[in-house]
Amino acid sequence: MTAPHCTLRPATAADVRAIAALNDAEVPRVSPLGVAGVRTMLPSCDLAVVAETDGGALAGFVFALAPGVDYASVNYRYFEERGTDHLYVDRVVVGPAWRRQGIAGQLYAAVEERARESGRAEVTCEVNVRPDNPGSRRVPQRRGVVGLGQHDTTGGTLRVALLARPVELA
To answer: pLDDT digits over 21-39, tens only?
Structure first.
């Protein structure tokens, strides 16, 4: 199978249902959102981008948050408490049919570009280590992230690795 051509574009209200379906199909790799959660989250994002195939299918998306957002994520709060000017990747999701075709790398590159444009010091994210999600570690590791530590969430049912990558200003 050849890789589909994808166009990255800003997420819109018209994408909410497709984003929610794609996201919620990946639980527990990501936390559930549902349609209401996506609608609530979109306005808080500094960057919300979808990858759309030439055929109009939603292949993936990324949500990233700037500092200072009122967001009840223990992972986001960890990075906030570090006090660095960061752009936090809350989630990158690529549908099963489009994985390992470079789409996640394109989405991370969009976050890095936004971080550069807005003068952020680093891009931050976390990936699950329990339950293990090796696929979600591949792209950040290739992009040179630095591990900052790990912590348990959701009463110890999840363990995440906390990661950061300094932004290289052009």
So the answer is: 999 999 888 889 999 999 9
- CA-based nearest residue to 29, from 132, 147, 121, 164: 132
CB 47 within 8 A of CB 63: yes
Q: What is the separation of C-alpha 164 from the centre of its chain, rounded to a whole number of angstroms? A: 13
Q: Tell me the two tokens of residue 62.
A: 């990324």
**Which of these, 141, 60, 64, 144, lies nearest to 102 by C-alpha position?**
60
- 8 Å CB contact between 108 and 124: no
Domains of the chain (ranges; CATH) run 6-166 (3.40.630.30)
One-letter identity of residue 121: A
pTM recorded for the entire structure: 0.89
97 DSSP β-pair partners = none
Question: Tens of pLDDT along 53-79?
Answer: 988 999 999 999 999 999 989 999 999
- DSSP per-residue codes, 112-160: HHHHHHTT-SEEEEEEEEETB-HHHHHHHHHTT-EEEEEEEEGGGTEEE
Tokens of 29: 């790799």
